[in-house]
TrEMBL record:
<keyword id="KW-0560">Oxidoreductase</keyword>
<dbReference type="InterPro" id="IPR050982">
    <property type="entry name" value="Auxin_biosynth/cation_transpt"/>
</dbReference>
<dbReference type="GO" id="GO:0050660">
    <property type="term" value="F:flavin adenine dinucleotide binding"/>
</dbReference>
<dbReference type="Pfam" id="PF13738">
    <property type="entry name" value="Pyr_redox_3"/>
</dbReference>
<protein>
    <submittedName>
        <fullName>FAD/NAD(P)-binding domain-containing protein</fullName>
    </submittedName>
</protein>
<dbReference type="InterPro" id="IPR036188">
    <property type="entry name" value="FAD/NAD-bd_sf"/>
</dbReference>
<dbReference type="GO" id="GO:0004497">
    <property type="term" value="F:monooxygenase activity"/>
</dbReference>
Length: 583
């Protein structure tokens, strides 16, 4: 992956539109000389049928010519009037010029893209980044539009009580499952979302009372509309999210079966159908479908809990964060939180607010702390009341992760360097700090493990929340935990904020057995910087992973739906993977 932003500049008064109009770049006839030496191209299903990022002019041109020929790409049209300049300091400058094109080989599509051009030392404008995005399937409804319904389908929570046969069954009714369901409905695909909870939004509603998003409201919508208008607060609580999801399901008549769990499933190679055994309202039922989308959260929300010796001795309350509600009944007592990521900080702060005598966080290794205002400053440039969510998503999620990483590092680290005293105080409070962390690593590789500071760091710096960093717990006592060095932490309430399994492939094994042998892993990044497994063909026919943060759920659901619609039409997208085109 690239290690830096381009070293290029041009006068501040330069007009981006005029520059774009003067370009001699022909997208239908690109050559290696069209690109900078460190150029890269990210394709989001438009030409490769999957997610790919290519590096170096030679590789880009080789693949570009192959896939454009195979897909019969044509009608490339630049839109210079929409060109925009971006400046990161004085030496990192480029101009983004959008374009559109079509593919005429079945499945015929419309697509969009952007070229990011930089001014070279020789005075020539060259392409630094090329981005292409699948937009729509020709002859099909718009995957980005769904008309509200004035009535819900028959059945509990918009579910059809009779039919047991669908094109698609979506396992999980959180943000990923709902987004996928909405996209299926927009393309007139027969589907059902099944969720083990009793109510829409319970994936958030049942979390600890102080749970809230650490990203801004405008980033947090489900597809088709702004799910959370300005009447909602900027930092959405779990109850806000649950209410927004319920309203969205009613507004669009999403077919969801609640109190429904998957038991097991089998895939028949001959019929290319899944047979799923489910429990619905305490009764077993069989479903058949062509496609299964796993949207159960990372690892199906299976908690990771460290094991300490002598648990039977402990007279207090020990539980995982997934079981934690609040600390109201522990006023005047001692609380210990194992972990130092987002949830750990939220719970420690909640304990403090509940009046516990002492609150201690146990930290194993340095934690990246990202003040929320740093993140909001960057995120709000795209996600705001003036820019549509669809436009913001395309700008955000079509960019190669390598470039997104460099932009994030530049912005976040500059902000951190500007106020060192903030982080000095946190370290003086005993916190082991990663001051200049890599947020892209924490999102795309670790899937968490950082803290978006919404207030708890100040309480650590002030000593209200204590830190234990020099030795980890190894065994329980009657009234706390003993660490390796012999120190005892008093604890009436012990909460493990230690995360969850992150690989959904474990759930494939759990539900579908040997199907997992052909399925890819879920999450992390490959050598191109693409997310493993998610949103694209998984290696097993008819099996899809969907997950990630709200933006991932909203944006990438459209490509799962478009891919499935093409398969159901009998004209699947040819996939150009690491081995090229298959047979």
């Amino acid at each position: 992956m690239v290690s830096s932003l381009p070293e290029s500049s041009f006068p501040a008064e330069a007009d981006a539109t005029s520059i774009a109009r003067s370009l001699s770049i022909e997208l239908g006839d690109l050559s290696e000389s069209s690109f900078t030496e460190d150029a890269l191209w990210r394709d989001t299903f438009a030409l490769t049928g999957t997610l790919r990022t290519f590096y170096t002019p030679a590789k880009i041109i080789s693949v570009w010519r192959t896939v454009c020929s195979r897909r019969q790409a044509t009608s490339f049209v630049l839109s210079p009037e929409k060109a925009k300049a971006t400046r990161i300091g004085e030496s990192h400058c480029w101009i983004d010029v959008p374009f559109t094109f079509q593919t005429t080989l079945d499945p015929a599509t419309t697509a969009s893209g952007t070229i990011s051009i930089v001014l070279g030392a020789d005075g020539e404008w060259k392409v630094w980044v090329l981005k292409t995005i699948l937009e729509q399937l020709a002859g099909e409804p718009n995957v980005d539009e769904l008309e509200p319904t004035d009535h819900a389908p028959n059945g509990d929570a918009n579910g059809d009580q009779e039919s047991g046969e669908f094109d698609v069954v979506i396992i999980g009714g959180g943000q990923a499952g709902l987004s996928a369901g909405g996209r299926m409905k927009s393309l007139r695909i027969s589907y059902v979302v099944i969720d083990k909870n009793e109510n829409v939004g319970d994936s958030w509603k049942l979390r600890y009372n102080s749970a809230r998003l650490h990203t801004c409201r405008q980033y947090s919508h489900l597809p088709f509309n702004r799910t959370f208008p300005s009447t909602y607060q900027e930092w959405l609580t779990k109850d806000d999210l649950a209410q927004g999801y319920q309203d969205w399901v009613k507004r669009y008549g999403i077919k969801i079966w609640l109190s429904t769990s998957l038991i097991s499933g089998k895939y028949d190679e001959g019929s290319k159908k899944w047979t799923l055994e489910i429990i619905r309202n305490k009764q077993q039922q069989t479903l058949t479908c062509s496609h299964v989308i796993l949207a159960v959260g990372s690892g199906g929300r299976n908690p990771i809990i460290p094991q300490y010796l002598n648990k039977e001795l402990f007279e207090g309350t020990a539980l995982h964060s997934s079981q934690y509600t609040d600390a109201v009944g522990f006023k005047g007592k001692h609380g210990v939180v194992i972990g130092t990521a987002n949830t750990a900080h939220d719970i420690a702060e909640d304990m403090l607010d509940a009046g516990l005598t002492s609150v201690t966080m146990v930290q194993r290794s340095p934690t990246y702390v990202l003040p929320y205002e740093y993140h909001q400053r960057v995120q709000s440039r795209l996600y705001n009341d003036q820019v549509s969510v669809e436009v913001a998503d395309r700008a955000s999620f079509s960019t190669p992760i390598a470039i997104t990483r460099q932009l994030a590092l530049a912005g976040m680290h500059a902000a951190a360097r500007a106020e060192p005293e903030r982080f000095d105080a946190l370290e003086k409070g005993g916190f082991k700090l990663e001051r200049y962390g890599d947020i892209i690593y924490y999102i795309y590789v670790r899937m968490g493990g950082h803290y978006m500071d919404v207030g708890a760091s100040k309480k650590i710096a002030q000593g209200q929340i204590k830190m234990k960093t020099n030795s980890l717990p190894v065994e329980y006592t009657t009234d706390g935990v003993r660490c390796e060095n012999g120190d005892v932490l008093p604890a009436d309430l012990l909460v493990f904020a230690t995360g969850f399994e992150t690989n959904m492939k474990r759930d494939v094994r759990r539900y579908f057995g040997d199907v997992a042998d052909r399925a890819d892993d879920f999450w992390g990044v490959d050598e191109e910087g693409e997310i493993l497994g998610a949103f694209k063909p998984t290696g097993h026919p008819g099996l899809w992973y969907h997950g990630g943060v709200l933006g991932h759920a909203r944006f990438y659901s459209r490509f799962i739906a478009l891919s499935i619609r093409a398969i159901l039409n009998g004209t699947p997208f040819p996939v150009y993977d690491q081995n090229g085109y298959g047979a």
